[in-house]
From TrEMBL:
<keyword id="KW-0472">Membrane</keyword>
<feature type="transmembrane region" description="Helical">
    <location>
        <begin position="167"/>
        <end position="186"/>
    </location>
</feature>
<keyword id="KW-1133">Transmembrane helix</keyword>
<protein>
    <submittedName>
        <fullName>Uncharacterized protein</fullName>
    </submittedName>
</protein>
<feature type="transmembrane region" description="Helical">
    <location>
        <begin position="65"/>
        <end position="90"/>
    </location>
</feature>
<feature type="transmembrane region" description="Helical">
    <location>
        <begin position="33"/>
        <end position="53"/>
    </location>
</feature>
<keyword id="KW-0812">Transmembrane</keyword>
Amino acid sequence: MEQKLGLIQSDSMDLQNDPRFFQDNVLNKRLEAFSKLGVVSSLMVGTCTHVIAMKKDMNFSTTEGIMRVVSFGLLSIVLFLNIIAAYVGIAQTYHTYRLETAGPTGFEIATSYYLNPNIVAWRHFAVKCMLHGLTIFLISTGIRVSVSFEDLTDEEKPRITKHNARLLGLVTLTFFCIGGFIMHYINGKHQAIFRVNYEHAKESERPYMSTVHDIMHSKRNGPRPHGNVV
């Protein structure tokens, strides 16, 4: 069913045991450092998801209500920034390792992917998203804590009007939908660059692998030498 619909890829790269894969290189060092970005961003995403559980009874007529709206908006931005950082950190590390182990020219192809201008730009952008997201997260947390000191009881708390509640919900829905489309664009860009580099790796190694297989086949089926082998 997966093969007919084409929704899930059912084939994978060839597995070739190359001893060079076990040697350290500068690319692996950079990937090891960059992979930490995905870990930190994933933790931040988990921390920011409590934006869903936040109370939405915000009243625009009070200072506390406006501060709650600002805190909610900042926390949503932090969530979005760290989702971008987490995706880029995980996807680029995964794609680079896949290309690096794709064959004899894997390191060169992985390097060309890693140094692609679009990939470099998204990598730098992801680092900035994570670093600036920490600052915005602290500001948002500070606003929420400051409001909690003057939190009113349920009887004293002014309720948000139905019109404002719908407006806030619509704005939030629009923001998250735009974020989803941006993530779709980022994923498409990474996948397109990965496919180009992978196809180039396969095309460049075909003549070499064909020659090697022909030599191995001729040696295996060739005439055996007579006499004792010393």
